[in-house]
Amino acid sequence: MSSTRPSRPAHGGKPFTDYEGLAVLLEKARRGDRRALGQVAVRLTPMLWQVARAQGLDSERSADAVQSAWLSLLGSIADIRTPVALTAWLVTVTKRTAWRMRDDHSAETPTAVSLDNVRDPEPQPEEHAVFTDRRRRLWAAVAQLPRRCQDLLRFVAFVHRLDYAEVSAALGMPRGSIGPVRGRCLARLRTVLLADEKGSWR
Amino acid sequence: MTADGELDDLDWEILREIRGLCEALDPVPDDLVERVRFAIDLADIDTEIEVLRATEMPMAAGARGEHSRVITFDSPTLTIMVKIESNADGSLRVDGWLSPVGGHAVEARTASGPITTSSSADGRFSLARVPAGMVQFVVRPSGQTGIVSTPTMKL
Predict the structure, then answer these.
(1) Which of residues 109-148 of A touch B (CB under 8 A)?
(2) Is a pLDDT exceeding 50 seen at residue A10?
(3) Of the candidates A50, A46, A199, which has an alpha carbon nearest to the alpha carbon of residue A113?
(4) B152 in contact with chain A, both atoms CB, cutoff 8 A
(5) B25 at the A interface (CB within 8 A)?
(6) Cα dist from A82 to A26, B76, B115, B155, whole Å
(7) Same topology for domains A8-112 and A115-202, yes or no?
(8) Which fold has domain A115-202?
(9) Which superkingdom (chain B) (predicted)?
């Protein structure tokens, strides 16, 4: 990454998780400010949703798992001092809750996100068609990766600049390995994308 | 990626696109953040909260033309079963059973404020008129400091 590049690139109008702002909100929330805690929930809920869904839960149970993590946090927030620790704590509790829910319903087939869910939009301008083509090719390339890589990239896309030592533990990976693993996963993905001769990623 | 392991522009674009794809393919339910904010706005601060899991998921409202549904929630220390029926005025009637039985404080948190009652010695409770909308059941088991809560539901 070049030094001129903004450290938090905007995408679709939404910034990646802003840990400095989160630190201020967390400090207020720890002192009992429920509005601040609500703001923290607005920031981190989309990432926790991805975590719950990646455990193979359906939509309704994923929503319950995410809510459970936030409710459980109320009794533990006094001990959580940094945004990274907060993120790791919430990810861990969401995953643990999701696993218990999955065990409750182990006979059911996990629901996975699939390309079949991509609906073709109305007739679109050429530019939009190219955009859609890139996304389809990207998703097809992601689908060729090992499951571990898919889950990791999906997670990393929602939070980055994390302290990998703490978060790798939350993700159930050996300490310190998430960085190299992310690198390998991205490298594999790039190889697939760039090998796609008709693709617009070249 | 560059040689020193930093991400380059293409890596960032790929990650942004993956995020965009996830958001498009598998969007966070519209009301989830709202339900989370409602749930964590509990008055109890620094209280140990045991969260109940729905073990029998509610049927979709009005499924098969029925006006009543039963939801069972479980936690390591408490089980609650609630039967929810629609009143003629659009509000909800809630009949519940708690186990272990006993007189526990029961609260239905709603958008228009909490409705409180207690379970009887045999673990039963009922709330005649609960406004439809967001509802969270909170139980304060007698003789304990912690509380037990369901997630917030749209009923």
Answers:
(1) 113, 115, 117-118, 134-135, 138-139, 142
(2) no
(3) A50
(4) yes
(5) yes
(6) 8, 30, 36, 36
(7) no
(8) Arc Repressor Mutant, subunit A (1.10.10)
(9) Bacteria
B99/B97 Cα distance (integer angstroms): 7
H helices within chain B, ranges in order? 9-25, 32-39
Task: Show the tokens assigned to B24.
Answer: 């498009």
Q: Is the pLDDT of residue B9 over 90?
A: no
Residues B24 and B39 in one domain: no
Domain A8-112 has CATH 1.10.579.10: no
Q: How crowded is residue B18: how many other Cβ atoms within 10 Å of its Cβ?
A: 23
Residues B21 and B61 in one domain: no
Average pLDDT, chain B: 86
Nearest-angstrom CA–CA distance, B105 and B137: 11
Amino acid B91 reads S
ipTM of the complex: 0.85
| Residues B74, B52 share a domain | yes
Alpha-carbon span B23 to A139, nearest angstrom: 13
